[in-house]
Amino acid sequence: MNLKSLAGLALIALGAAALAWPDLSYTRATHDAKLGPLEFTLKQKESIHVPAWAGLAAIALGTLLVWRRKG
Question: For 17-65, how does the pLDDT look when each residue is reduced to its tens digit (9 = 90+)?
Fold first, then answer.
């Protein structure tokens, strides 16, 4: 298996994951404060939306890479 087919399989997997879970959310710490023995942390939840066309394009490109290897 060469590098192109591995990249194609990775793109297919990432595209399928993007279609299955289009919204990715994560939490990041925005502010930290220390006041003597007390510590405060403000955390903010953010999300990223992956469009369906991006997942489909990744699957199509991955399929093309795997298919072109065989030809």
Answer: 999 999 999 898 888 888 888 888 889 999 999 999 999 999 999 999 9
Please state the pTM of the whole predicted model. Answer: 0.70
Asked whether 25 and 46 are in contact (CB, 8 A), the reply is yes
User: Concatenated DSSP letters for 2-63?
Assistant: -HHHHHHHHHHHHHHHHHH--EEEEEEEEEEEEETTEEEEEEEEEEEEPPHHHHHHHHHHHH
- CB-based burial, 33-59: b 16+ in 10 Å, e otherwise: eeeeeeeeeeeeeeeeebeeeebeebb
Quote the number of domains for the chain.
Answer: 1
Structural domain of 49 = 3-70
| Contact (CB, 8 A) for 12 and 66 | yes
